[in-house]
């Protein structure tokens, strides 16, 4: 089956969620990938949304972080304060699954401003739950489309910390979680290099060239010694994803591509 | 004891110019009708507190009611930017607005601390983030037992909190369910609290351990069916996703925004009239 680069991205991200993992899910691309994982390889993945649902099993993708279906399909719904206090800060989240407006080579995330904070060129939505997810989840996965506007050499603002300045930054900051372990894009998968914690390309999606990746990265991106080729989406994965998007579009009255 | 009042009277009596006001509701049960009434009554110099400003604060900010915004995520969920918030921050329209920015975990903890009567909240947060550099109220505290350095943030204790809920009984006891966000904490953190409800019933029939706010902890209860639109009220109506999308072009320009506020909010007597006007406009389309 032929597939789009966006489908490859979502499928590659979904594969990273092991069955049974407790996953704190951001809205948008992370939610799509996490639900695809639940519908394919990882039926027992536990999805937690910051609005309060724990163990949500939505049949369509939520448009907002607090859609009613998340509550109706959850094992339990708790207050938002409890989500952050008991479940995240309490150390019960295996994987924090985040999107981003911009990332840098150490997996630090900006969702606050482009330009100066006090005189911004572009004012972005802000932190939401991400800073503490990035700090306290045992591991973090980041999913976003790759471009040199999104993958920048230097962030104007660090909203949520990844590996800080690299090396043992996280340890020095006293952060409990391991930090970002993968950035999944529409072109490739990046993982932190041992020691430096700089993200390097470890797997290239089928048909993508190294030049494309370099052009779409705002820093001098490096490639691991043994770069893999990402396994193309299977028919099962693609069908599950397309069905999910079609159900979502029908439920929300959108065109299929918008879901 | 909560008084059963009209929304007009509750806002007139309990929301003053210059107050800090929290209109809470996390995607669910957003007290939109109360936001409209604050605009209608021309309240000003408000410090608005809310985790997710959403359309309700886009309207209040664009209408010139706010002096300051305390928040943690400011977007139109599933759609994009809050254009009135951005215009106020980026271009000081209709006037300059001070922003005090936090994370969700921070504000959620700050409401818990406020409801607990504490001056600050403590949480494990912000290490490595630039937010403390732009918000001097984010400080740190050292644990006296372990030596761990943790974040300390001021509690949120609004002059008045407004929330929307499903049901009240005739005494003014309030029941809400579904996604609760920080509504209970925001209600108990505030000096005064207004609750708008979908219906008033003889008996709440609340299950044990349900989220019930007793009448004696509230100031006013107002019957406003549909008052959370375009957000939703679980068990009553769904989120109006199309309105969230329709808001984007309305709010994009100052002219179209002002025309909308003049027509739909300042040009209507109350939420019932607003709903009727909105419905007839949708039929015309």
List its salient traits.
heterodimer, A: 259 residues, alpha/beta, Glutaconate Coenzyme A-transferase, eight-stranded mixed sheet, two-stranded antiparallel sheet, 14 strands, B: alpha/beta, 2 domains, ten-stranded mixed sheet, 15 strands
In short:
The complex is a heterodimer of chains A (about 260) and B (about 280). In chain A, about 30% of the residues lie in helices and about 20% in strands. Chain A has about 260 residues and is α/β, with parallel strands linked by helices.
Ordered list of secondary-structure elements with their pairings:
The complex is a heterodimer of chains A (259) and B (285).
Chain A: H1 5-15, E1 22-25, H2 29-39, E2 46-48, E3 53-54, H3 68-72, E4 76-77, H4 80-88, E5 95-98, E6 102-103, E7 109-110, E8 113-115, E9 120-123, H5 130-136, E10 139-143, H6 169-173, E11 180-184, E12 188-192, E13 199-204, H7 210-215, E14 223-229, H8 235-252
Helix pairs in contact in A: 1-2
Chain B: E1 3-4, H1 7-14, E2 20-23, H2 32-40, E3 46-49, H3 54-62, E4 66-71, E5 75-76, E6 80-81, H4 83-91, E7 98-101, H5 104-115, E8 120-123, H6 131-134, E9 139-142, E10 149-154, E11 160-169, E12 174-176, H7 183-189, E13 192-201, E14 211-213, E15 220-223, H8 241-252, H9 254-265, H10 271-284
Parallel strand pairs in B: 1-15, 2-3, 2-11, 3-4, 4-7, 11-13, 13-15
Antiparallel strand pairs in B: 5-6, 8-10, 9-10, 11-12, 12-14
């Amino acid at each position: 089956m032929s597939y789009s680069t966006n489908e490859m991205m979502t499928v590659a991200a979904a594969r990273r969620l092991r069955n049974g993992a407790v996953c704190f899910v951001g809205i948008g691309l992370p939610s799509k990938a996490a639900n695809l994982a639940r519908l394919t390889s990882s039926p027992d993945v536990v999805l937690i949304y910051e609005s309060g649902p724990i163990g949500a099993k939505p049949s369509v993708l939520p448009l907002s972080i607090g859609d009613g279906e998340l509550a109706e399909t959850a094992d339990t719904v708790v207050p938002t304060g409890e989500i952050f206090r008991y479940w995240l800060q309490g150390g019960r989240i295996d994987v924090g699954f985040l999107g981003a407006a911009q990332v840098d080579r150490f997996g630090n995330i900006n969702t606050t401003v482009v330009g100066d904070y006090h005189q911004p060129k572009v004012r972005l939505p802000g932190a939401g739950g991400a800073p503490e997810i990035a700090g306290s989840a045992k591991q973090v996965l980041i999913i976003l489309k790759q471009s040199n506007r999104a993958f920048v050499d230097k962030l104007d603002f660090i909203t949520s910390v990844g590996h800080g300045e690299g090396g043992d930054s996280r340890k020095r900051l006293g952060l409990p979680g391991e930090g970002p372990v993968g950035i999944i894009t529409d072109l490739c998968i990046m993982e932190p290099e041992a020691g430096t914690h700089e993200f390097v390309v470890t797997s290239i999606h089928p048909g993508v060239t190294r030049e494309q990746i370099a052009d779409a990265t705002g820093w001098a991106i490096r490639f691991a010694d043994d770069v893999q080729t990402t396994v193309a989406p299977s028919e099962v994965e693609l069908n599950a994803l397309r069905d999910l998007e079609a159900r979502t579009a029908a439920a929300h009255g959108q065109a299929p591509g918008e879901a | 004891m909560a008084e059963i009042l009209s929304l007009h009277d509750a806002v007139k009596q309990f929301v003053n110019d210059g107050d800090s006001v929290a209109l809470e509701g996390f995607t669910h049960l957003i007290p939109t009708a109360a936001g409209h009434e604050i605009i209608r009554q021309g309240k000003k110099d408000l410090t608005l507190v809310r985790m997710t400003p959403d359309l309700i604060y886009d309207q209040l900010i664009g209408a010139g009611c706010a002096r300051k915004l305390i928040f943690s995520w400011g977007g139109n969920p599933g759609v994009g930017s809050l254009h009135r918030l951005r215009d106020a921050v980026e271009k000081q329209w209709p006037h300059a607005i001070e922003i005090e920015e936090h994370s969700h975990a921070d504000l959620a903890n700050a409401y818990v601390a406020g409801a607990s009567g504490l001056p600050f909240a403590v949480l494990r947060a912000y290490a490595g983030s630039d937010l403390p550099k732009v918000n001097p109220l984010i400080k740190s505290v050292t644990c006296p037992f372990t030596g761990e350095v943790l974040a300390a943030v001021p509690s949120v204790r609004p002059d008045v909190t407004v929330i929307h809920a499903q049901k009240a009984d005739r005494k003014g006891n309030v029941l809400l369910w579904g996604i609760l966000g920080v509504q209970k904490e925001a209600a108990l953190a505030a000096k005064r609290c207004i609750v708008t409800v979908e219906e008033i019933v003889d008996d709440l029939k609340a299950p044990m351990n349900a989220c019930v706010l007793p009448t004696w902890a509230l100031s006013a209860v107002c019957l406003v069916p549909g008052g959370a639109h375009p957000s939703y009220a679980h068990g009553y109506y769904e989120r109006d996703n199309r309105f969230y999308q329709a808001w984007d072009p309305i709010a994009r320009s100052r002219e179209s925004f002002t025309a909308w506020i003049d027509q739909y909010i300042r040009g209507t007597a109350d939420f019932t009239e607003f709903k009727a006007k909105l419905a007839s406009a949708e039929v015309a389309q």
